[in-house]
Amino acid sequence: MSRTITPKVLIAWDGTSYVDETVNFVSASGSAKITAPGNSIVSPKGTVDNMTVVLYNRDRRYSPLNTSSALYGYIKNGGAYHRPIRFEVSITDGAFTRVFTGVIKIPVEGTPTPKQEGTVSIECRSMDELLLQLKISTTGPALQAGADNPVTEKEIITNLLTHPDVNFTNYAIDNGFFTIPYFWMDDESVMEEIWAIAAACGGVVFTEPDGRLVYKNFQYWVTGYNQVKVKTFSRSDFTDLKIKWTDDDLYSAATVEASPRSLGENSVLWEPDEDITVPANGTREVLARLRQAAYFIDEVSYQPVTSAGGSLLSYVNVVPTIFAQRVKLVFTNTHPTQAANIQTLQIKGIPVVGTPTIEETVESTDAFWTTRKGRTRTLRNNVYVQSRAHARGLAEFLVNASEKPKVMYTIVNTPGNPAYSVGKLIGITDSKIISGERDAFITSVNWSYTNAGGYVQTLEAIDISAVLAYNPSDYFTIGVIGNTLSNCSGTGKRAYY
Q1: Ordered alpha helix ranges (H), 111-208
Q2: Taking a C-beta distance cutoff of 8 angstroms, is the pair 316, 332 a contact?
Q3: Which of 101, 128, 155 is where one domain is finished?
Q4: Alpha-carbon radius of gyration of the chain
Q5: How many structural domains is the chain composed of?
Q6: Dihedral, 362, 367, 371, 374 alpha carbons, nearest 10
Q7: pLDDT range class, residue 472, cuts 50, 70, 90
């Protein structure tokens, strides 16, 4: 059945209302990528998806120096920066589906020639670009886990996305498996911290074509056989299938470092190097950078005096705004003529303190290493790994994901479909080089759309065997009647729950 592909370009020049710019469409292309599960543990930096869309610049509509443009009020002085953009396609049935959702970077204008119309090339980034550039600080007490308040990666990521300074609403976060006792941010990138949290928990964060931010926990990857395949690709679906065995991430052991934290004794967390002066009938703002993150601020104490040493306590007050590792102090002096010297200023509270690090090492027991020399993969300095159990669990997952060479697939020039996006499970068959069908997770999508060439994708995928995919025949499930070890056909009997 032949495909009829129709594109649509929508841009919210005012930041809210989308305008259809498809009449000027020339081409679009983009890419999305995730770090392969397992590797993501030691590579906490994620990637932001990108798109380039080219539009005819008829009548200099997209020229920010053209005062006659209908868009001039929106695009002058770089006004197009970070405006929302969508690229959609309809495949045969007339229903449009998003290929990309994001924001504009900086448009690049092309000069028209006698033989060619002028164009504008618009570079775009996915919605997590906004989270990458946004820095926030947590206020009040740092998050604390424990018997009364267990906090997992799900709660922390969700709390960040719903923070008043963030308010990111389009997300889907898998359940958390690891408890992170202490967490705070001090003027740090929201997206970078989410990447680091995901890495500490064996999960992967990415954005889908509709702009939704997704966190898939480690269970999603290791239970790959349970996921629904979006497509099984056969020889008729691509121009070329490349298969590569890689030893880039081949290790026989893994060592993971944990950095435990605990609550310290009530103590002085900050005091200034010199006295602070608040003018008469005026205010003074002071930013106190704490020696350690504060779980709780107990007291801000001070003595306001005149230059002669007389007390101004009845005239001076302070309003603190408490962040995790900073306190903003705003002093107000109501005395009409006397400046106030703030002496013996101290901030006291309960700090979060670090304790000596812990290392957990797990060695592979796979027969692959019986006659081979191996090497150790090491994970250190992820502050969100804070317990021995956490380190042990990550080390086991890391060994299982690294103990054998990985099978990687490149599916070249397959008909495009937004459903074939990163993180999705696919099947691959090719009777000339593959026996039966292999299952794999998509790790990279490169796509393009032109009126002449249509909508095509090149996909990269990792075989699910590389991430310890759960095969039902190798497990028995606790709590399921009639499901026992004796029923398992696999050699490595495991309990799954």
Answers
A1: 128-133, 153-161, 190-200
A2: yes
A3: 128
A4: 28
A5: 4
A6: -30
A7: low
**Do 340 and 443 belong together in one domain?**
no
Residue 328 bridge partners (DSSP) = 287, 321
Residues 66 and 118 in one domain: yes
Helix (H, G, I), strand (E, B) or coil at 2: coil
Residue at 343 is within a domain:
yes
Tens digit of pLDDT for each residue in 140-190? 666 665 556 778 999 999 999 999 999 999 999 999 989 998 898 889 999
| Residue 17, in any domain of the structure | yes
Considering the domain architecture, whether residues 290 and 368 belong to the same structural domain is answered as no
Residue 386 — very low, low, confident or very high, per pLDDT cuts 50/70/90?
A: very high
Say if residues 256 and 360 touch (Cβ distance below 8 Å).
yes
370 CB burial (10 A radius; 0-12, 13-18, 19+) = exposed
pTM of the model: 0.88
Give per-residue pLDDT as tens, 51-60. 999 999 988 9
138 in a domain, yes or no?
Answer: no
Task: Write down the mean pLDDT value for the chain.
Answer: 89
* Contact between 190 and 198 (Cβ < 8 Å): no
24 with 124, same domain: the answer is yes
360 and 348 both lie in a single domain: no
Please name the helix (run of DSSP H) or strand (run of DSSP E) that holds residue 459, with its range, or none.
strand 454-463
Residue 422: burial class (beta carbons within 10 Å; 0-12, 13-18, 19+): buried
pLDDT of the residue at 303 = 96
**Among 93, 125, 94, 121, residue whose Cα is nearest residue 108:** 121
Query: Amino acid letter at 36?
Result: A
On the question of pLDDT at 281 being above 50, the answer is: yes
Q: Give the whole-angstrom CA distance, residue 144 versus residue 150.
A: 8
pLDDT of residue 225: 77
**Structural domain for 493, as ranges:** 222-245+422-497
d(CA 486, CA 476): 9
Q: Give the pLDDT of residue 94.
A: 79
* pLDDT above 70 (res 95): yes
